[in-house]
Specification:
By secondary structure, the chain is an alpha/beta fold. It has seven helices and eight strands. The radius of gyration is 17 Å and the shape is globular.
């Protein structure tokens, strides 16, 4: 089985701001270890978590602080997890739009759309993220049970690859940003 886990919601200021403040908040978002732990607490009581725990998966984690903190809270019962840079989030870049105030999540959404349209100037392009997800799959299939703690867009591409490899989602838990999906053949 493969368990795809998206990090819990980072605790930052999500209120409306101009693009300069949005750039600062994006840095906070990428560096904070402060997450909404209550999203995870509910999951720890679920049958799905008990199934993951019993399967004793090999755990791989993104090096980004919010993902690593999520991993630590979920897998405190294991000796170690593997930090894998291929699980990093696809970068965002806030585009300067003077005289405009938007909520931070809207700034992030616009930045993601600009990235998808190749307008953001980010060095990693869509094809690079797709390639990363393709390279991860053979590693995952070598293990009997694997848990990945990562980010939304990389998970999106991984799910596409898993579907092409005849994997199917079997169980899901979602609370805020925090999402857990169980995939198997």
């Amino acid at each position: 089985m493969i368990f795809l886990i998206r990090h819990a919601t980072p605790k930052i200021d999500y209120s409306a701001c101009d693009y300069r403040a949005a750039q600062v908040r994006l840095q906070e978002y990428n560096q904070t270890r402060e997450i909404e732990e209550s999203e995870i607490e509910q999951f720890l009581l679920s049958e799905l978590f008990q199934e993951i725990k019993a399967s004793n998966p090999v755990v791989y984690c993104s090096p980004v602080a919010r993902a690593e903190r999520t991993c630590q809270l979920l897998f405190s019962h294991i000796d170690r997890y593997v930090i894998n840079p291929d699980l990093s989030e696809v970068g965002l870049r806030i585009s300067p739009l003077p005289w405009v105030k938007l909520k931070v999540r809207t700034w992030f959404l616009l930045s993601r759309i600009a990235w998808l349209l190749r307008l953001s100037g980010e060095p990693e392009k869509v094809r690079h993220a797709v390639r990363r997800s393709q390279q991860l799959l053979p590693q995952l299939e070598q293990q009997e049970n694997v848990a990945l703690v990562s980010h939304g867009f990389l998970m999106h591409y991984l799910k596409k690859r898993l579907t092409k490899q005849q994997f199917r989602p079997r169980a899901t838990f979602k609370q805020g940003c925090f999402t857990v999906e169980c995939w198997d053949k």
